[in-house]
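Quiz preparation item.
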């Protein structure tokens, strides 16, 4: 009976929507062929372009000059502008720069004297989320390293204070030694560590996010099939004919899986050509599992909701929300702090993590794989329950 259902659904799903889906996948494959890095291009990704930054140096001290000088040595940065704040804001509004770094007045003196420092202010360009994430991580690395040096200095001072005749002289000498150590670490690039491979992460991020988006969009074909079946009364007739409810549900997901394979086959062929070190089966499995969770979500909506166009819009918005929570639209680091823990509820997060890690050669993340498998089981159970309790079509 299951094979008869599959033949029936193949005939019914062979329509303009499915053909449009295949056309979209072929167009995307052609786009990636022209956008991914060529072998003769030194491995540079066309998705990435060097960025410029503006530095507003209100301190004009040795430490601020040293920081600016080291930023100039980072290959990710094309140009550094030394601007006042108004000029820098105009550059940021005009998308000329990635960010503005403001070094406040007195930053050096406050650091030397161990006072509460005025923080460095960073203004990010909202149109460059992936690149901004790299530099936010870099600046946090600077801050954390300086704080470690400062804490070590204070501990050293406390240990030597009982042995010193003049505590003020000891404090001055220790502060001078601490500042000298910070300068030496910066000069040796021991504080600001920049992973030069990060420049390639943008292409992997885009590819991983697109794979998640298309895998979840394929599930909408399943929702359309459920709506058409319920609207025509075919669902009730098949149940009256003795077709088991679980076969109705499984057949729809398998038909969607066939369209998924047809659409992703050329796309994956291109990806594995440009990322030969990627492990193929984990990437394929991550895409299939994400599709399965999204199709189960669509089955729940299709069987419990009304057969109207608003349901399709609701499913699309739900998928969009899951992609946003999963870091497929904006990197997780750029989401609000209170929203980042909630992202664990999105299957897109775990699928994205698996795909991105394998394309980057980092290996398969077992926690991500287990989390995604758990969501497959949970949503599958929900879709089975929804199929058994399907409300009459309206």
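Solution:
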């Amino acid at each position: 009976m299951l094979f008869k259902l599959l033949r029936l659904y193949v005939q019914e799903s062979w329509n303009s929507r499915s053909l449009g889906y295949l056309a979209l996948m072929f167009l995307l494959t052609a786009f990636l062929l022209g956008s991914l890095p060529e072998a003769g291009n030194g491995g540079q990704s066309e998705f990435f372009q060097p960025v410029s930054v503006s530095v507003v140096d209100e301190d004009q001290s040795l430490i601020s000059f040293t920081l600016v000088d080291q930023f100039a040595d980072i290959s990710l940065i094309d140009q550094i502008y030394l601007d006042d704040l108004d000029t820098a804001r105009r550059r940021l509004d005009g998308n000329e720069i990635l960010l503005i770094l403001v070094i406040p007045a007195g930053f050096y003196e406050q650091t030397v004297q161990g006072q509460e420092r005025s923080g460095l202010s960073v203004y990010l360009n909202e149109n460059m989320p992936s690149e901004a994430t790299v530099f936010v991580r870099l600046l946090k690395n600077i801050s954390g390293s300086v704080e470690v040096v400062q804490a070590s200095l204070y501990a050293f001072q406390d240990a030597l204070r009982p042995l010193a005749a003049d505590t003020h002289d000891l404090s001055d000498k220790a502060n001078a030694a601490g500042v000298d150590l910070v300068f030496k670490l910066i000069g040796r690039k021991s504080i600001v560590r920049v992973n030069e491979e990060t420049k390639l992460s943008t292409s992997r991020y885009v590819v991983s996010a697109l794979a998640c988006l298309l895998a979840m969009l394929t599930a909408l074909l399943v929702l359309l099939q459920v709506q058409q079946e319920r609207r025509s009364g075919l669902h009730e007739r098949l149940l009256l004919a003795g077709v088991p409810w679980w076969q109705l549900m499984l057949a729809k997901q398998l038909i969607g899986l066939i369209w998924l394979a047809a659409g992703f086959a050329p796309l994956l062929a291109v990806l594995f050509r440009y990322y030969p070190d990627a492990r193929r089966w984990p990437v394929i499995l991550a895409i299939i599992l994400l599709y399965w969770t999204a199709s189960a979500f669509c089955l729940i909506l299709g069987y419990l909701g009304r057969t109207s166009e608003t349901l399709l819009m609701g499913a699309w918005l739900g998928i969009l929300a899951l992609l946003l929570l999963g870091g497929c639209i904006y990197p997780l680091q750029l989401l609000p702090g209170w929203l980042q823990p909630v992202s664990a509820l999105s299957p897109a997060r775990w699928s994205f993590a698996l795909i991105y890690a394998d394309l980057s050669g980092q290996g398969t993340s077992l926690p991500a794989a287990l989390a995604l498998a758990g969501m497959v089981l949970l949503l599958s159970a929900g879709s089975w329950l929804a199929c058994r309790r399907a409300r009459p079509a309206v």
